[in-house]
Design brief:
- The chain is of the alpha/beta class and 285 residues long.
- It has a domain of 140 residues: 3 Solenoid (UDP N-Acetylglucosamine Acyltransferase, domain 1), CATH 2.160.10.10.
- It is built from four helices and 30 strands.
- The strands form four sheets. The chain has an eleven-stranded mixed sheet with strand order 1-4-7-10-13-16-19-22-25-27-28. A nine-stranded parallel sheet has the order 2-5-8-11-14-17-20-23-26, with no helix packed on it.
- The longest helix is centred in the C-terminal third of the chain and has 15 residues.
- It is elongated.
- It starts with a strand and ends with a strand.
């Protein structure tokens, strides 16, 4: 164990083997850090935090802050963190709003500078959060999701497994698993095929998900018909998780971005110009 003489570490904190704490870092009473964690200079680990092994808390990150809520009770929940996570500079993770309701972060997640996890967030494993990404209270992020820079996820929303959210997107409804979200429009633009391949999904898995995508977004079925069709046509593979996710939604789901019919820009022709048939037309985007 290595604790810099200028660090402020409570004698009531429980530290594992090989923990390193830098200058001006603060570890408050009641904190539990597993083996080989690193608390860099200026980082603050507040009371109510339990973290596993090999976690890295970089400069000026604040883990375990009080929930940002105008009706915050005197007693609040905790922050529970798994193993092998990286919290880069100025990341903030807030405690659960009520006792027994915790903010939970899994293992092997990478949170880049300025990221924020609101109270009662539930983050899975092997997720990536780019600079300035923000999760509101009660947000759920499933395994291997990728949340790009400056993305804001509204409270109580869910982001499904292996979904990829483009930069600056505003997420106000659930994003189903395996989907790719355009940052500019905030709409779904297809499957995260690259992520699926990198995660080891087979060509058959991807083909099934493409068929499921058409059922959900292209057939014009009612919602109950969508769920029933997915149930009857797919008996195994990732579509089962997709259907379960869709069947448990409460906020609605992010829509597909499709160009509306006749989305063309008709160019203006001078009054004295010769008539040309057909008139020149150009795509509007």
């Amino acid at each position: 164990m290595s604790i810099h003489p200028l660090a402020a570490v409570s004698p009531e904190a429980r530290l594992g083997r090989g923990v390193k704490i830098g200058a001006f870092a603060s570890v408050e009473a009641g904190v539990e850090l597993g083996d080989h964690c690193l608390v860099a200079s200026g980082a603050v680990i507040k009371s109510g935090v339990t973290a596993g092994c090999h976690n890295e808390f970089c400069e000026h990150s604040v883990i375990g802050g009080a929930p940002q809520h105008v009706a915050r009770p005197a007693d609040v929940g905790r922050v529970i963190i798994g193993d092998h996570n990286v919290f880069r500079e100025h990341v903030t993770v807030h405690r659960g709003l009520k006792p027994g309701c915790d903010t939970i972060v899994g293992s092997s997640n990478y949170v880049m500078a300025g990221g924020h996890f609101g109270h009662d967030s539930l983050v899975g494993n092997s997720c990536i959060f780019a600079n300035g990404s923000m999760l509101g209270g009660h947000v759920q992020i499933e395994d291997k999701a990728f949340v790009s820079g400056a993305v804001a996820v509204h409270q109580f929303c869910r982001v499904g497994r292996l979904a990829m959210v483009g930069g600056h997107a505003r997420v106000t409804q659930d994003i189903p698993p395996y989907m790719l979200v355009d940052g500019q429009s905030g709409c779904i633009v297809g499957l995260n095929v690259v992520g699926l391949r990198r995660s080891g999904h087979t060509g058959e898995d991807i083909a099934d998900l493409k068929n499921a995508y058409r059922i959900i977004y292209r057939r014009g079925l009612s919602w109950q018909e969508v769920l029933e069709t997915l149930r009857t046509e797919f008996r195994a593979g990732p579509v089962l998780h997709l259907r379960d996710f869709l069947g448990s939604g409460k906020r609605g789901f992010t829509q597909e971005r499709r160009a509306p019919p006749n989305a063309t820009l008709r160019l203006r022709v001078a009054d004295d110009a010769p008539v040309v048939a057909p008139a020149l037309r150009s795509k509007a985007g």
